[in-house]
Specification:
Elements: H1 8-21, H2 29-41, H3 46-60, H4 69-72, H5 80-92, H6 98-112, H7 114-123, H8 126-142, H9 144-149, H10 151-163, H11 176-192
Length: 203
Amino acid sequence: MQLHRAVANVQVKGCEVLGYLCQQGPAPPEAWEAVVAALRRFPCRYPVVSNVMAALRRWLEPVSQNQELGDVAAGGDPEEGQLRQGLRGGKDFVRAEMEIIENSLFVYSLLAGIPALLKEATDGGLVMKSATVQVLCDLCRSFQHLVAKESELIRRCVPGLLQSELTAGREGELSQEVVELQRRCEMLNGLHGSPEITIHIST
């Protein structure tokens, strides 16, 4: 990857391979540097951004119940500016594949914090909001202590994400995307145990 930095296909496959090779333990600094360098060089190339975010997510997700975030990210963290760059790339490709923006937001939430994640969602569109709620569900499963620490902020922000999208159609029907956002909010409610999160819709 260092030898062929300008060749996008090499960076794509390199990030994919590193993502799997380093999945079972802390990724070494060289691996972090390689994937972040690929993101820096190709911030708007879909396959690169997709594989970078997939690799980072694999490294950050715990492989056991007792593993802490610090153990997984021991190799070093990308700078917040680089994460934002990747997040912008994920937004650009959102129509192509939902997975890339969810991976981007998952990585962003762990390295920049849940408050930063919720701010991005508040400023974003329907797809960003839906992906954010899904990421919060994933965090409830993998990093409960991080979600618990921001519990009050989540209770305040998440209902607003749904409420702002409640626009009925001609016959009072909601779009499929809004229904999916509602479903994810209900799932988050079950995982988080906060009745305030769910907004019941009457049509």
